[in-house]
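TA notes, week 10

Several of you asked for a full example with nothing omitted. So below is the full record: structure tokens for the whole chain, then the designed sequence directly under it. When grading your own attempts, check the secondary structure regions first.
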């Protein structure tokens, strides 16, 4: 073996060890590249093969003749006299290119099939289209559509993200991550709650509005373990870690139940539900709450009710006790009109005896029976305009309020 060949093989072996590439892979790539380089010569044979001795490093080119079926009928040594110089130049290019290809493949293989995993990255740069996260060996792309609207991604900030897609490109793997995907919350709970990662506690359902609020329903396979307590942690330590990672996003952890009514009641927490009525045909659940619980059950801009509906899969219609009583009383529709004496009277839309303003305010009829005033809803914009009737109604109202009190 010549000194040049020895140095060549030694360098090849060193590169292979450093980059995690087999020597045979590099030799095969080099041989293919040398065939291409040989065929560019004007006197080259139409068919040729290059051999590289892995022990001596000697490179030989053999010209070939093939029959119609592709079998070799004649072969001869056609190694050019200056092929060593060509081989050296080609080897450098091929090895560098092959190293880049192998590194790209290794990076892709490392992340291929990891959709649904969580990764930690450092913000490198950000603009109005996307943010780049440095994951170590590769960079991840966080598109604007996958970002929480009011989050600020400052350079050097460390954050966790959810892998939604891994693409193979000519420049290497392109990893697309998300901060809005519900799976991010699930993976964070798996990191913080050992009972979830071990399978003792399961997340049965989840509904999320990124950056604002998330509801999860959890279930324990061990009757001795409280699923909600396990997720919340001592003094809320576990759920607080997740909230901090999500920049203050509120998280409601509720117990899962196979009973639909109980699940809906739990899903509307922190509001307390008095009654749930299910309509299987329409998939609607009518939820009755105390008057003072109505706004809490609905939530800000309907968020609590909306998340509860997505968590349970039911359309949720929330009503207060007063609203339910009014509906069940069958309040009639009607209007205030002037009678022949110029007095304001309420005329029910479904017909029947007109009611004067005095009868309306006192809730009594002329024959001593109970007037149907309680069965009619008076729109505020249609209050009686007669001054005398208004005065009489004003005098009667305090007395009625005192009786009710």
């Amino acid at each position: 073996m010549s000194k040049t060949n020895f140095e060549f093989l030694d360098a090849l072996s060193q590169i292979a060890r450093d980059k995690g590439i087999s020597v045979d892979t590099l030799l095969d790539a080099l041989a293919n590249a040398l065939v291409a380089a040989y065929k560019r010569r004007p006197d080259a044979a139409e068919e040729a093969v290059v051999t590289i001795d892995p022990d001596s490093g000697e490179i030989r080119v053999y010209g070939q003749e093939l029959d119609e079926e592709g079998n070799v009928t004649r072969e001869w040594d056609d190694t050019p006299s200056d092929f060593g110089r060509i081989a050296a130049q080609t080897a450098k290019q091929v090895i560098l290119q092959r190293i880049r290809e192998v590194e790209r493949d290794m990076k892709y293989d490392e992340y291929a099939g990891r959709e649904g995993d969580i990764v930690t990255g450092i913000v490198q740069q950000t603009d109005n289209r996307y943010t780049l996260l440095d994951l170590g060996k590769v960079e991840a792309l966080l598109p604007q559509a996958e970002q929480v609207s009011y989050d600020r991604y400052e350079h050097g900030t460390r954050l966790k993200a959810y892998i939604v897609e891994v693409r193979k490109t000519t420049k290497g793997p392109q990893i697309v991550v998300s901060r809005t995907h519900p799976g991010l919350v699930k993976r964070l709970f798996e990191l913080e709650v050992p009972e979830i990662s071990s399978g003792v506690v399961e997340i049965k359902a989840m509904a999320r509005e990124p950056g604002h609020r998330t509801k999860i329903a959890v279930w324990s396979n061990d009757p001795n373990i409280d699923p909600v307590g396990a997720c919340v942690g001592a003094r809320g330590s576990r759920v607080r870690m997740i909230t901090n990672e999500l920049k203050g996003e509120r998280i409601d952890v509720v117990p899962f139940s196979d009973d639909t009514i109980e699940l809906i009641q739990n899903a509307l927490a922190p509001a307390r539900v008095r009654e749930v009525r299910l309509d299987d045909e329409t998939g609607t659940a009518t939820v009755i709450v105390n008057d003072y619980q109505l706004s809490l059950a609905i939530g800000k801009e309907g968020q609590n009710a909306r998340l509860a509906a997505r968590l349970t899969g039911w359309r949720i219609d929330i009503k207060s006790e007063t609203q339910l009583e009014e509906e069940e009383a069958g309040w009639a529709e009607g209007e205030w009109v002037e009678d022949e004496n110029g007095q304001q009277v309420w005329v029910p839309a479904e017909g029947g005896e007109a009611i004067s303003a005095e009868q309306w305010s006192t809730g009594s009829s002329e024959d001593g029976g109970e007037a149907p005033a309680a069965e009619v809803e008076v729109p505020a914009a249609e209050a009686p305009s007669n001054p005398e009737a208004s005065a009489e109604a004003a005098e009667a109202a305090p007395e009625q309020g005192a009786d009710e009190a």
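The CA atoms of residues 36 and 48 lie 9 Å apart. Use that as a sanity check on your answer.
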